[in-house]
Amino acid sequence: MIGQLIANGIVYGCIIALGAIGLSLAYRIMNFANFAHGDFLTLGAYLTLFFAATLNLGFPAACILAIPVTAAFAVALDIGIWKPMRSIGASRTAIMILSIGVSIAIRNALIIFFRPDALRFPLPVMESMNLGGILLTSFQISVVLIALASMLVVHALLSRTVLGKSMRALADNPDLARITGINVDRVIRYTWMVSMGLAALAGIMFGLITHINPNMGWSIILPMFAAAILGGIGNAYGAMAGGLIIGLAQEISTAILPAEYKIAVSFAIMIAVLFFRPNGLLGGG
Amino acid sequence: MLDYLISIMLTAGIYAIFALGLNLQWGYSGLLNFGHVAFMAIGAYATVLLGMNGVPLIFAVLAGMVLAGACGAFLGVATLRLREDYLAIVTIGFSEIIRFLLLNWSSLTRGSFGLYGYPRPLEGLVAHEDYNIVLAGIVIIVLLLVYALLEVLAKSPWGRVLKSVRDDEAVSISLGKNAFSYKVQALALGSAIAALSGSLLAFYLQYINPNNFQPIETFYAWIMVIMGGSGSNRGTIVGAILLWGFFSTTRFLEGYISFSPSASSAARMVIIGVILIGLMMFRPQGLFGRKEDLAVGK
């Protein structure tokens, strides 16, 4: 019983972690909490559905296409909205309010194009496999494997590449980064691409193990923020750990609490972290 | 036609009170409350549940305000020592948690079935078909009282400290003001005002369920405050009227467009999102606001 909950928690935690990494990266580089992040998960899932079901591309090809298209949309948004806001020197609070507007617009545009009903990817229903008493579908196992692989890629990107170095430089001191010749707008756009690409991937995986609806991303914005804060907001590794902890805590809580309240568990963890360790378990921020 | 006008007056008036609470928090104090609707829900449910159990309505309304104020203060204490983002994140989470709680605590709230048949003020004294006129009168009086209170507060030493905290926290702290405590007070009072609007909403609707309190309601209030000009109470009321004008006009236009109901309400929401984006990009001080009253501008 508890083994099953832990397994479910790891699957769900991987999705939260991928979402939270993107949220945390964007927070560190752009310096604001992006409330539209959840809706990019939704966008990624719907684009995949569109490519797979309407254009008949096959599910893997649809995923591979949906991720860069979501990232491209994020870049377009940077050119159209975030960059002009940076240029006029808008405050963080103004940008956060604006991100709410973006979130409302994306979510409802998806409702217009795809109707508000819950949908599924055009994939066969998977039988659960019994792994020593724990039931898992091959979807759930692939979610964990893909998430772990993506985390390794993010780690390599941040620690081994020039882009990763520029991102850290920009986060630590924007002015210094600028005068050392870092093209700030370019680094910011790459950050959006990484952040929103991860969001799209998280959205696809969330749709794979549950279903797709226009509210799906918004509905897990709270656990994603809780994970980011738990790990120290701005810290990508903290977000990974935070995501897994939140996922496990939410699922294991169902052993003692009604399942409807599991989202409240992540809220309680977030409040506790803010009271006792506001920089998160791994610091950062 | 008169019924229609009165129903617009009621909704615009109730939402104006709701938005005035937010204006105290955001316009006066620069606090990012993204979960304002939670306090409206607390007010509505507390009033209805206490009223159904025989508590005199005036005390039921006050109890809702105190409860909402206490919740606001608690969230403020948790987050206001940290960067401003945290209050936004925590309040938006809180509003979802409250809605989940109302949906799932069925023994108390009857969950998604909602509550109805609860007592309303002066109900025995007026004929049923005239009730909304009386309620509209009550809403207008409450609106004027809240407006007057906020205007007095804005000009009082308390309001001046609040605005100085918003404009430059370091300066007000160096003058010996406890900025943190002022912000917590503003958050609590604004939340209590939201609860008051929630009680009035419950009286008007005669039926409440958790879906009345979706996160989007919070951002209606944000648009009213920003459109009218953050920091201006009069602007907030104008913002409420404008937004309700927008809703009525688009509902009227719906008759001529062959959209499904879900698509046309979604299209309206897309416009709401775009209005918010446009305001923040091109006119953050709103239609009537002053640039210097803007926590955003700096």
Describe the protein's architecture and organization.
- The complex is a heterodimer of chains A (about 280) and B (about 300).
- Chain A contains twelve helices and two strands.
- With about 280 residues, chain A is mainly α.
- Chain A has a domain at about 1-110 and about 145-220.
- A two-stranded antiparallel sheet of chain A has the order 1-2.
- In chain A, a hairpin with a 2-residue loop joins strand 1 and strand 2.
- The longest helix of chain A is centred in the first third of the chain and has 29 residues, at about 1-30.
- Chain A is globular and about 60 Å long.
- Chain B is mainly alpha-helical and about 300 residues long.
- The model of chain B has no long low-confidence stretch (mean pLDDT about 85).
Query: How many β-strand stretches of chain B?
Result: 2
Low confidence ranges of chain B: none
Total of domains of chain B: 1
Class by SSE composition of chain B:
mainly alpha
> Shape of chain A from CA axes?
globular
* Main sheet summary of chain B: 2 strands, antiparallel
Task: State the helicity of chain A in percent bands.
Answer: over 70%
Strand order of the largest sheet of chain A: 1-2
Using a beta-carbon cutoff below 8 angstroms, give the protein chain pair with the largest interface and the number of residues from each chain: A-B, 48 and 47 residues
Which series of helices and strands of chain A comes N to C? Answer: HHHHEEHHHHHHHH
| Mean pLDDT, all residues of chain A | 90
Based on the structure, what is the oligomeric state of the protein chains? heterodimer
How much strand of chain B?
under 5%
Mean pLDDT of chain B: 87
- The Cα radius of gyration of chain A reads 19 Å
- Counting DSSP H or I runs of 4 or more residues, the number of helices of chain A is 12
Q: How many alpha or pi helices of chain B?
A: 12
- Terminal Cα span of chain A: 37 Å
In which range does the helix fraction of chain B lie?
over 70%
